[in-house]
Write a structure and sequence with these properties.
The chain is of the alpha/beta class. It folds into 3 domains: 87 residues, MurE/MurF, N-terminal domain (Udp-n-acetylmuramoylalanyl-d-glutamate--2,6- Diaminopimelate Ligase, Chain: A, domain 1, 3-Layer(aba) Sandwich); 218 residues, UDP-N-acetylmuramoyl-L-alanine:D-glutamate ligase (3-Layer(aba) Sandwich); 112 residues, Protein-Tyrosine Phosphatase, Chain A. It has a 9-stranded mixed beta sheet, sandwiched between helices. It has a 6-stranded mixed beta sheet with strand order 16-17-21-18-19-20. A 4-stranded parallel beta sheet has the order 3-4-5-6. The chain is globular, with a radius of gyration of 24 Å. It starts with a strand and ends with a strand.
Length: 434
């Protein structure tokens, strides 16, 4: 456990006020409402576009916090009996605290990045490891400039492995996260169009930025079937240990897949050896996520054979594709996620749960970051998924109606109010609705 004094020493030029320098610091608090159940916390007065944490110092104090990380021009007079660590930039200081904690950790850090699949791979990898290994993983989707340092700060120093997810939405962000995470192993899941707008739709720029996370890693795990990813990794990380997976026979780990009684059967071929496992999911996205986990276990020299049954027990992640029984013989699939093409393809794969008498229905809103021809791409995905009914809600997405073949029933509404007012929610029967 740290103390107010030991943390203040990381910022030697600050004019700190430490009346109780030996006050223990265990937790980091960024929300004053949660301070009451975070003992021995330091409150970080983070500033955002709409919120300034300095406004909540009093709330945090009233909930028991006595150590604060604040901007060096903030007023210190309100609570003279509290410890104040004063810095020019609170977020940058937060990064420094997390980096310091990372440098105390002697276990192996696995960093996971990519456009999609980060949280799934992180959670599945944890599910495959936690029963017999000491492993920590970042909570939820804590992969941002605030989420990553929170995740790293909470790494137990006695754990053997730490799995940290990292995401970015603009150039310059990954350099900061790499200094905090300092991974030994980098897992790159997939390069898609999520967050393209932050990189001016430049896939090569986005890939280059994401791969900064691995600049000091000893091992890189990646999908060799993605040509742009393969070429960049092999060029940028020559001399490192590279482990790739493939569904086309081009990787270190080569897989063939088939469907067996509600499971995907995945057969792995490596040199002279073959091995197989099953996952309770269908579609190329979860299959690739499982292969990322398989390859990472091998990168860590962890026995995969002892975990084959655990693949069959992998669970869905709560934030995506929750299926609920509805009325009139319907099943509702709620996909609360970003609407990029890769996420949409993943969601469309989930419609395969439809029974022989159930129609496949898709309710789709405007694409948040549209580009020329994007709805033509989406139209092809909808047809390929075997959708029977398409309901468009929004101005732009209605373009899809003209792109659908005659056998797909289509309806379009200006907005949700229009959908409800015109009775668009009243005629669902025996359908799987996404």
């Amino acid at each position: 456990m740290y103390t107010a004094s030991s943390l203040a020493s990381l910022f030697p030029t600050g004019n700190h006020e430490l009346p109780f320098p030996q006050s223990p610091v265990q937790n980091i608090c960024i929300d004053s409402r949660k301070a009451a159940w975070q003992p021995n916390a330091i409150f970080l007065a983070l500033q955002g576009a709409r919120i300034d944490g300095h406004r909540y110092v009093q709330d945090a104090y009233s909930h028991g916090v006595r150590t604060f990380l604040i901007r060096d021009d903030a007023d210190l007079s309100s609570f003279p009996e509290a410890n104040y660590i004063c810095v020019p930039n609170v977020l940058e200081a937060f990064h420094a605290l997390a980096k310091h904690h990372r440098e105390q950790y002697k276990g192996t850090v696995i960093a996971i990045t990519g456009s999609n699949g980060k949280t799934w791979v992180k959670e599945w990898l944890y599910m495959l490891m936690f029963k017999d290994l000491s492993v920590y993983r970042s909570p939820g989707s804590y992969n941002s400039q605030v989420g990553v340092p929170l995740s790293v700060w909470n790494i137990p120093l006695d754990s053997k492995y730490a799995i940290i997810e990292a995401g970015i939405s603009a150039p310059g962000e990954m350099e900061k996260l790499e200094k905090i995470i300092q991974p030994e192993v980098l897992v790159f899941t997939h390069l898609g169009d999520a967050h393209d707008e932050g990189f001016n739709d430049d896939q090569k720029l986005k890939l280059k930025e994401k791969l900064i996370l691995g600049k000091n890693a000893s091992t890189i795990v990646f999908p060799v079937d993605e040509i742009i990813v393969k070429d960049k990794i092999q060029k940028s990380f020559s001399g490192r240990k590279l482990i790739s997976w493939s569904l086309s026979g081009k990787g270190d780990i080569n897989a063939e897949t088939s469907k067996v009684e509600g499971f995907s059967l995945i057969k792995i071929h490596q040199k002279e050896n073959s091995i197989e496992y099953k996952i309770p999911f269908s579609g190329t996205v979860p299959i690739n996520n499982s292969l990322a986990c398989f390859a990472t276990l091998q990168a860590l020299n962890i026995s995969v054979e002892e975990r084959l049954h655990a693949f069959e027990e992998l669970q869905p992640i709560d934030m995506r594709l929750k299926a609920e029984l509805g009325i009139q013989g319907c099943v509702l699939i709620n996909d609360s996620y970003s609407l990029d093409l890769d996420s949409l393809q993943f969601a469309l794969d989930s419609l395969d749960i439809a029974g022989p008498t159930q129609r496949k229905t898709l309710i789709l809103s405007d694409h948040a970051h549209g580009r020329p021809r994007i709805y033509r791409d989406i139209a092809g995905m909808i047809v390929g998924a075997g959708v029977d009914k398409l309901i468009c809600v929004g101005q732009e997405v209605s373009e899809l109606v003209e792109l659908m073949p005659a056998e797909i029933e289509c309806k379009a509404y200006a907005d949700v109010d229009d959908l409800i007012r015109l009775g668009g929610m009243a005629d669902f029967h025996d359908e799987v609705i996404l």
